[in-house]
Structure formats: C-alpha cells, structure tokens
Amino acid sequence: MFRISRRVDYATRILLALALEERRLTLQEVRERMHIPPQFAKQLPAALIKAGLLRTKRGPGGGLELARPAEAITLRHILEAIEGPILISDCIAHPHTCPLSGGCPVRRHWAALQAVLTSTLEAATLAQLAAESRRTTRQRGGDAALEFALPSQGEREERAGSFP
C-alpha cells in the first residue's frame, strides 16, 4: 500500500515550521514546535539540504532556513528529497520488464494513478500549507505549528473521510 512515511511527514514539518516563521530557526526550536523526535530531527536536514530545500548557518544567530521561497517548494519536492522519485509501479518507468509489456491492461491505470498523485503533490506548496495553517490557527486561537502537527480527532476523521 502506498503510504507517506514518517520521514516525509517530519521533513514536511521541518520546512513548514520555517515557512510559518519566515525566519531562521534552530533545529531545537523546529523540533519542539513540530513535535519531531530527536533522531529524525538530526537525520532529515541533510537530505533536505542535498535537495536544495534547506540551508544552514553556523554560529551565533545560526540555524535552519528555507533555501528557496516557500512558494517554490512543493510536497513533491519534499517527498522526492526523502524517498526518491515517485514510482507507483516499476512497469511505469521500465515497461520492458513486464512480460505483458504494451498489451498490459493494468499499466495504463497505474500510469494514471501516478499522474494524479504527482500533479496533486506538485500543486501543494509550502506557502499554501503555511497559509492554511495560519487560517486554522486564527479560527481556533492557537499556535500555527501545533495546529498543523496535531489536528483534532474530528479533523483527522474528516480528512480520512474526504478521500474517495
């Protein structure tokens, strides 16, 4: 089953914290605000830096910051930085490996699913997520980072039921 890993979720939280604050934060600040376990907080920045999504500054006043504007970072960028290219089935990238090859009735459906998933992830930017988090926070009168990280039970049920 296709599933967003904890690593991708935590990487998204790291970048979202920076998009929400619009300033440099220490790793400890990000970790505490977004409820990220220490082992993930230590591992994930390297992959995000390598992908050009995050940068660091050492010394006093140092910390983490977005390497690009939040409008230019999508969920696809984050997922692929952590997990590699999106590939629903090997037959999409390597059709010759399938014994049914061009006559496979399922390949077309896998390709369509991959296209929908990819376009959905490309359409969601960090700037949009930050704006959504701020709207939710204003409605509830809470902390934007906490609201994103810990939706209410009702919201979790609503989100789970909103997918076909």
Task: Give the overall shape, derived from the CA principal axes.
Answer: elongated
Q: How many alpha or pi helices?
A: 9
Mean pLDDT: 85
> What is the C-alpha radius of gyration, as a whole number of Å?
18 Å
Strand content: under 5%
Please provide a written account of the structure.
This protein is mainly alpha-helical and 164 residues long. The chain has one domain: Orthogonal Bundle (Arc Repressor Mutant, subunit A), CATH 1.10.10. The protein has nine helices and two strands. A hairpin with a 5-residue loop joins strand 1 and strand 2.
Summarize the structure.
The protein is mostly helical and 164 residues long.
What structural keywords apply?
164 residues, mainly alpha, Arc Repressor Mutant, subunit A, two-stranded antiparallel ribbon, 9 helices, 2 strands, elongated, disordered C terminus
